[in-house]
Amino acid sequence: MSRPTIRGYITLLSHIFLLDELPPWHSKRMKRLVKTPKLHIGDTGLASSLLGLDAESLWKDRATFGRFLETFVYQELRRQASWHEDAVTFSHFRDKDKVEVDIVLESRGRTAGIEVKAGSTVGSDDFCGLRKLRSADPKAFVAGVLLYDGETTASFGNNLYAVPISHLWS
């Protein structure tokens, strides 16, 4: 397919709320950023059906489960952000070395990063992308949060936290 045809399909699917385009975050301080938007299929049930996945097979395919979980968290954060008086913009961070942050939120000159992990344990290495985002704009960076399938909230240094996904609702 040609690039204009693909763009037309993406636009159509976005207009009927089946696809969300998450734009790339950028900074004048970093030259090696990837500027490609990230696509989220808004209806993970439809995506599962199209891929022939049921709950059991999705649970076994942790990579796909992780992508669906990231989409779910992104949609939940967008819903919750719509309740705030101040506008919140959403983007994602990825550099040429494939270091990334799943979701970047910005509001009133402040930046926060959200990383989503389907696993129940976290380590210092899981914060690599959040650290890089923090170094890209240290004055604006207020927090980096790794949402994971665990039960304990823990600090990983200078405004970096591991937080259970369940805290999105509590």
Keywords:
globular; 8 strands; single chain; 6-stranded mixed beta sheet; two-stranded antiparallel ribbon; Trna Endonuclease, Chain: A, domain 1; alpha/beta; 170 residues
Quick overview of this protein structure:
This protein has 170 residues and is of the alpha/beta class. It has helices at residues 3-15, 44-50, 55-60, 62-81, 128-136; strands at 19-22, 38-41, 89-94, 100-107, 110-116, 141-148, 154-155, 160-164.
Describe the structure.
By secondary structure, this protein is of the alpha/beta class. The protein has a single domain, classed as Trna Endonuclease, Chain: A, domain 1 (3-Layer(aba) Sandwich), CATH 3.40.1350. The protein is 32% helix and 26% strand. It has 5 helices and 8 strands; from the N terminus they run H-E-E-H-H-H-E-E-E-H-E-E-E. It has helices at 3-15, 44-50, 55-60, 62-81, 128-136, and strands at 19-22, 38-41, 89-94, 100-107, 110-116, 141-148, 154-155, 160-164. The strands form 2 sheets. The chain has a 6-stranded mixed sheet, with helices on both faces. Strands 1-2 form a two-stranded antiparallel ribbon. A hairpin with a 4-residue loop joins strand 7 (154-155) and strand 8. The radius of gyration is 16 Å and the shape is globular.
